[in-house]
Design brief:
The protein is α/β, with parallel strands linked by helices. 19% of the residues lie in helices and 22% in strands. It has a single domain, classed as Rossmann fold (3-Layer(aba) Sandwich). The protein is built from six helices and eleven strands. Strands 1, 2, 3, 4, 5, 6, 7, 8, 9, 10 and 11 form an eleven-stranded mixed beta sheet that branches. Strand 4, helix 2 and strand 5 form a beta-alpha-beta unit. It is globular and about 50 Å long. Bound molecules: 2-acetamido-2-deoxy-beta-D-glucopyranose (7 copies). The site of one 2-acetamido-2-deoxy-beta-D-glucopyranose has 9 residues, from strand 10 and strand 11. One 2-acetamido-2-deoxy-beta-D-glucopyranose (NAG) binds next to loops.
């Protein structure tokens, strides 16, 4: 068992922003959780994706949809696991996102089942280039029901993450009733095609986003028109979520430069840092990785991924998720 490879200690040291909360990384103890109908079924640990036998697929809206799954190394059919749906970027696939977030490398993620929905024609709904009529919100709800009937899941600890088009879809999900089953939402380089103004969304949600100023695909400052449609200014979008979550009570907090990045957060009442944003000066269109060995880091240097290793975003995401469940998160 490759436990020695888990990125626990190194991320705490490298991810300065996450260090303060790193020791909260584990969800509540397993035996206190509500169990789904999939408890009792055995599963093989490791990464599995769809094949020609129809494994790892579900029919949604009359369309066969695919997914991949990362089963924890010590999967126990009688313990309920937290769950993350992790959405890939446009033209990517489940396996690419598996290698971007690399949850499988983290000790804390061994308490989660990770599911990687596969976009229809490699994209998710929202941008104009997505295949018309494909309903990824319904797919998400159908896949969640399917996963809960097949694996032992704690329904109070269900989360969504994604990159680029997949990150934008996580925002679309957060703004939808389909997002009511999810406790928190995290994105990197999110392509926010469906969220262009403060009133476009009326949900309260725990939201974490990361974006770099050298992102030329989804520019930080937004774009009036692009391949997939107009995009908002990311900084403005963060303030919208601050207001959506906290209204006039929003307590905004911005750090100074933390070494190539800074953080902005909004809090109110019990919702500490319920909207949290990481802003990188030199980062491109990437899932930030302190080790520099994920899929994005393997891109050409001109994409500005491997050069920026100041934050290990996956450990930030796991710490953020560990702070929220369906009972404590806003919107429910
Ligand atoms: C895929 O399906 C085949 C045929 O139904 C089955 O024998 C096989 O065990 C399945 N593989 C996995 C990984 O579930
Ligand atoms: C995903 O894309 C990669 C890179 O193009 C490819 O090697 C891999 O086979 C694909 N995986 C799946 C599950 O489609
Ligand atoms: C699938 O995506 C490709 C571009 O990646 C596009 O050319 C094609 O039209 C798309 N197919 C459908 C059915 O939309
Ligand atoms: C805000 O966005 C929504 C949804 O895209 C749109 O219907 C509405 O007209 C926009 N409102 C303003 C003031 O631009
Ligand atoms: C909340 O976010 C701010 C940065 O905006 C940070 O300084 C602070 O440590 C965070 N608090 C917690 C509890 O994570
Ligand atoms: C945060 O960092 C970005 C990128 O370097 C910079 O544009 C912005 O002014 C910084 N914000 C604060 C509050 O320091
Ligand atoms: C992830 O992608 C990088 C860059 O392409 C590659 O070097 C590495 O071997 C991949 N890791 C895994 C676990 O697939």
């Amino acid at each position: 068992m490759p436990l020695i490879h888990f990125k626990t200690i190194s991320c705490v040291l490298l991810a300065l922003g996450a260090a303060a909360v790193a020791h909260h990384a584990s969800p509540p103890s397993l035996d206190k959780r509500a169990a789904s109908s999939g408890c009792g079924k055995a599963h093989t640990p490791g990464y599995h994706y769809h094949d020609s036998n129809g494994n790892f697929s579900v029919v949604s809206g009359d369309v066969e949809r695919y997914y991949a799954v990362q089963v924890p190394e010590a999967y126990d059919a009688d313990h309920s696991y937290a769950l993350i749906f992790d959405y890939h970027g446009n033209s990517d696939n489940s396996t690419i996102q598996y290698n971007n977030s690399q949850y499988f490398n983290y000790a804390a993620a061994q308490q989660y089942l990770i599911v990687y929905p596969q976009g229809y024609n490699r994209s998710f709904q929202g941008p104009t280039y997505a295949v018309p009529g494909i309903d990824d919100l319904q797919f998400t709800t159908d896949l969640l029901a399917h996963i809960e009937s097949d694996y032992c899941i704690d329904s109070d600890h269900v989360y969504a993450s994604g990159k680029s088009n997949g990150g934008g879809f996580v925002d679309t999900l957060a703004c939808s009733d389909h997002g009511d089953s999810f406790a928190a939402f995290a994105m990197a380089s999110a392509a926010l095609y469906t969220d262009l103004n403060r009133t476009a969304c009326n949900k309260k949600r725990a939201i974490l986003e990361s974006h770099g100023d050298k992102d030329t695909k989804i520019p930080y400052v937004g774009k009036k028109s692009s391949h997939g449609g107009p995009l908002p200014n990311v900084g403005e979008w963060v303030t919208w979520w601050g207001e959506r979550n906290c209204g006039d009570d929003a307590n905004a907090d911005a750090t100074g430069d933390l070494g190539g990045y800074n953080m902005t957060s909004y809090s109110c009442g019990n919702y500490e840092n319920v909207t949290q944003h990481y802003h990188f000066a030199q980062l491109g269109h990437c899932w930030p990785d302190a080790q520099g060995d994920n899929y994005d880091a393997g891109k050409l240097n001109s994409q500005f991924c491997s050069e920026v290793r100041v934050v290990d975003y996956t450990s930030v995401v796991l710490d953020f998720f560990a702070k929220w469940d369906l009972g404590s998160a806003p919107g429910n």
